[in-house]
Each structure stands twice: as C-alpha cells, then as structure tokens.
Amino acid sequence: MSSYLFASSPCSVSRFSLLLGSSLPFFGIKSSAPRFTRRRHTSKSWAHLWTRSSSKLFSALSSPPPAYDDVIMLGIETSCDDTAAAVVRGNGDILSQVVSSQKARRLAGVFNLPIVGVHHMEAHALVARLIERNLQFPFLALLISGGHNLLILAHKVGHYLQLGTTIDDAIGEAYDKTARWLGLDMRKGGGPALEELALEGDANSINFSIPMRQHKDCNFSYAGLKTQVRLAIESRKISMEHNPISLANLDDRRSRADIAASFQRVAVLHLEERCQRAIEWALKIEPSIKYLVVSGGVASNKYVRARLSHVVENSGLELVCPPPSLCTDNGVMVAWTGIEHFLLGRFDPPPPADEPEDAMFELRPRWPLGEEYSQGKSEARSLKRARVFPSLTSMIQGSVQN
Ligand code: KG4
Ligand code: ZN
C-alpha cells in the first residue's frame, strides 16, 4: 500500500505564544497578520513578524519594556504551510528559533511522496461526501467560516460556480468580534461562547436590520451588522474593554445576552435569505440538485443548523452538515479532498528532497473556488475587491485542456 501526502492552502494566519515558565501571569498573543500575495520564505521575514508580536506583548505590560528575566515564552506562528517556533526570555534573549517552510512539501520531498494541493474551502465542502456517501454532484454548498462566506454550486470535484460571497466580513468574524466586545471567554472561540450566551437572551429584544435586503443576489455583508452591535453595546453603557462577563451583575449579563441573541438571529436570518435565493438559482441551473451542504466553523452552531434545516425542508432538498469536529478546520477534510483529487489523477510528483527553504511559492489568499455566476455579480463587491487570482476551477480546466 502506498501513502500520499496532502498539502492545504489555508487562507488565515495566526500566531500564539505559550508561557513556559514564570512567576508572572500568562500572556497570550493572537492577532491577524498581513495578507501576502507573494513572499520569499526566509527566517528574516519570520523574525520580522515575531518582532511585531513581541512589541505588542511589551506594550501590553507597560512601557518601556521591563526585563523580566524569569519569563520564558514559547511562540508558535503558523501561516499557510509554514510554522515558526521560538523560545524567548523576557529580557529579549532569543534562546532558540526554528522556521519550517512548506511543511507538507518538505516531508513529501524527504520521503519521496506525491503531493496534492488542496483548496481550504473546497475541503470544507467535500468533507460532506465523506459523511454522506449518497451525496452526488451536483450539489449546493454554503461555506461559513472566520474568513469566508460562500455559496457555491459544486458541479464536480474541482469544478465550482460561485453564486455568492461576502463583500466585506465573514459571519465567523462577526461572531468573534461580537463575543469579544461582550467580554466573553474566548478560550473555546468567540462563536461557541456567543452561541451559549444567546441561549439566555431575548432574540427579539433588539431590532438589528438584516444586511443587503435591497440587493437581490446571494452575496453577504457583515460589516454593517458589526457596527449595529457596537452601537447597541455603547448605548447600553457596556464597556468594550477589560469587562469580562464573569464580573457582570445580573442585569448587565441579561443585557449582553439580549445583544448576543439578537445578533445571532439577524446574522443567521441573512444566511437563510441568501440560501433561499441560492436554492432557486441552483435549481434553475441544475434541476437535479438534491442537497445543500453547510460546512465551515460556523456550521457547528446548533441554531445555524436548525434554522437552515427549515429552509432546506421547505424547498424539498436535504441538508448535509458534517459533525462539528469536521466543520471546524481539521486534517480529515484536507486528506479526504486529497483523495478525491488523487483518484482523478490530479497530484504532483514528489518535490525534490533538497528543495531550498527559501524557494518561491505563490500564496493565494482569497483564491476563488470557481467563476462567478453572472446573475450573482455584485456591484457592491466589485467596487470593494478586485479578483487577483484565476479560480481553482479555471486552473483545473486549463490543465485538462493542455
Ligand atoms: O472554518 P474554521 O474553523 O476556520 C476558518 O477557516 O476560519 O471557522 C472558524 C470560525 C470562527 O470565526 C469561529 O468563531 C466560528 O468559526 N465558529 C462558530 C462556532 N464554532 C466555530 N461560530 C458560531 N457558532 C459556533 N458554535
Ligand atoms: Zn476553515
């Protein structure tokens, strides 16, 4: 039996720090990094990123930075296919640092294994076929995560039509921001914390307006809802800084729960309305469609699942929603998508074992999955975001023709 390696192309960047030893409290850093289009992978660039993180740490402590000799921090940065780790002492001594560029490629090169490049959002969609073996193409998919809101018509593996996308923020980002502003415990993620608090609140207490109703398409927008939430928080005199909900009195907690529930109702209503229209469009394009797949981190939310299952029932389709552990980012979805492509003969030969660390790779943040459905083109979006890369679908079709 042979083994194969699969590489994913995630679109998000994150970094974490862990305290290895100290008499001081725990300090963690997490922030979004700049989006790259093309970058040379050198330890210098990682050092630069690390320096940006560390300056945030020190400014959070006090200014100028104190020399806390007894603090030893492990920093781990992962972005795309890279991982960098360093151990640094509070006085600025770098005790150790390593950078591993294109993790998957290095392993494939060293062990002489073929490699399959996997689009992160395609993996969210296709993992549904691992769960529901009857799920045949074509199908409709709503993919909702921290960075994406996509409605796609999946014709076959590697061939997608984009019916809608977000013109600004994704729903997961709106959940995370709202949770942070409400002072929720973010350790298990903003989305799950907000979902839990919303159970205590009155979802009709605040009448947030539903985004983009005047646009009769399948695109999304969450930036405006975020602003409405912020204003609601401010008007209730809830501090958005250093105000953990664990310290809130009963009235304050109730007020935050009402905001959480009202936000969630409208955020999900926006999904419902867009899905309703997407189902109509999809059935016109491909009348044989039987399934709506809902996947991505936000699809693990019970309220989201329940509301979308009503939409789907009313339209005579079936909902396929992977279990929460396969909705949020996971290795299974990448491996499964690798299998789907591999079985169609789409994979690359093993990279050279001695591929240099600083080889050039093209990173494609926000790489589209498919071409846009002409009716779905949004004037609002084209003003905001120019397309940078040809879609996965057009690249696969181009290579088949060649
Ligand atoms: O797909 P994913 O794991 O990572 C990305 O590709 O972004 O999605 C992460 C997003 C985060 O914004 C997280 O807060 C959200 O999914 N999320 C949830 C829930 N679980 C995760 N949002 C709402 N309710 C949840 N239960
Ligand atoms: Zn994801």
Features:
Nucleotidyltransferase, domain 5, binds zinc ion, 402 residues, disordered N terminus, 21% strand, alpha/beta, 38% helix, 4-stranded antiparallel β-sheet
Structure write-up:
The chain is an alpha/beta fold and 402 residues long. It has 2 domains: 112 residues, Nucleotidyltransferase, domain 5, CATH 3.30.420.40; 184 residues, Nucleotidyltransferase, domain 5 (2-Layer Sandwich). It is 38% helix and 21% strand. Strands 12-11-8-9-10-14 form a 6-stranded mixed β-sheet, sandwiched between helices. The chain has a 4-stranded antiparallel β-sheet with strand order 2-4-5-6, covered by helices on one side. A hairpin with a 3-residue loop joins strand 5 and strand 6. Helix 4 packs parallel to helix 6. The longest helix has 36 residues. It is flat. The two termini are 31 Å apart. Bound molecules: 5'-O-[(R)-(carboxyoxy)(hydroxy)phosphoryl]adenosine (KG4) and zinc ion. The site of 5'-O-[(R)-(carboxyoxy)(hydroxy)phosphoryl]adenosine has 19 residues, from helix 4 and helix 5.
Number of strands: 14
Mean pLDDT: 80
Question: Within the largest sheet, what's the order of strands?
Answer: 12-11-8-9-10-14
Give me the CATH fold name of the largest domain. Nucleotidyltransferase, domain 5
Domain Gcp-like: 86-336
Keywords: Acyltransferase, Metal-binding, Transferase, tRNA processing
Organism: Musa acuminata subsp. malaccensis (Wild banana)
GO molecular function: metal ion binding; tRNA N(6)-L-threonylcarbamoyladenine synthase activity
